Amino acid sequence: KAGVTQTPRYLIKTRGQQVTLSCSPISGHRSVSWYQQTPGQGLQFLFEYFSETQRNKGNFPGRFSGRQFSNSRSEMNVSTLELGDSALYLCASSLVTRVTDTQYFGPGTRLTVL
Amino acid sequence: GENVEQHPSTLSVQEGDSAVIKCTYSDSASNYFPWYKQELGKGPQLIIDIRSNVGEKKDQRIAVTLNKTAKHFSLHITETQPEDSAVYFCAHNAGNMLTFGGGTRLMVKP
Q: With 0-12 CB in 10 A as exposed, 13-18 as middle and 19+ as buried, what is B24?
């Protein structure tokens, strides 16, 4: 079974631009969660989608948004990029939306904001 | 979510020795405690998890212990090998999300 895939793997953007990242979950998984990983703040939860609905949201500004499609693929968008948005963005998929379900992470998208 | 403190931040051991990483949490409602291993250039991979109805779980050279009264849980790796070198993260469910510790960089010297 193929794992979680994320595209692109690397991105370079400039301040003020927007970016869209994509995540394809493991086949059959319906929940997708997004995390931001930085050296200073560690792994922080952004949001979770299940059945095309946002189920949970972390403590991030409204510039961070996401969506999920009917095939469970998910995208996250960051608008008006700031230098501090430079990070590894990880998505994780699980079968259902219980927080105690095992989450399988993708390799991440490395975003650099100049 | 509630914070989880992880110690040590770095750990260097000789090949064949044991390694222990400890985490402390504050949310008494937490009942799921996974451990992830992250190698360079990869996403975190689940290596073991424990739920609050048990105090210890083993999988070959890896074990996790949980003390719900003291609100701490630990990862134990025995007979360490160079391929165990990575960053390890503890996590727990705080509300409806997973909250992660700050990570431990484990270096196993051959």
A: middle
d(CA B102, CA B98): 13
CB A103 within 8 Å of CB A61: no
B13 min Cα distance to partner chain A (Å): 23
User: Cβ of B32 and A99 within 8 Å?
Assistant: yes
Size of interface A-B (CB pairs under 8 A): 56
Report which of B27, B2, B7 is spatially closest to residue B75, judged by C-alpha positions.
B7
User: Using CA atoms, how far apart are residues A34 and A46, in angstroms rounded to an integer?
Assistant: 5
Contact A100 B36 (CB under 8 A): no
Q: Considering CB atoms only, which of A43, A55, A104 is closest to B100?
A: A43
Name the E strands within chain B.
4-7, 10-14, 19-25, 32-38, 45-51, 56-59, 62-67, 72-77, 86-94, 97-100, 104-109
Structure confidence by residue, pLDDT tens digits, A11-58: 999 999 999 999 999 999 999 999 999 998 899 999 999 999 999 899
pLDDT at B29: 86
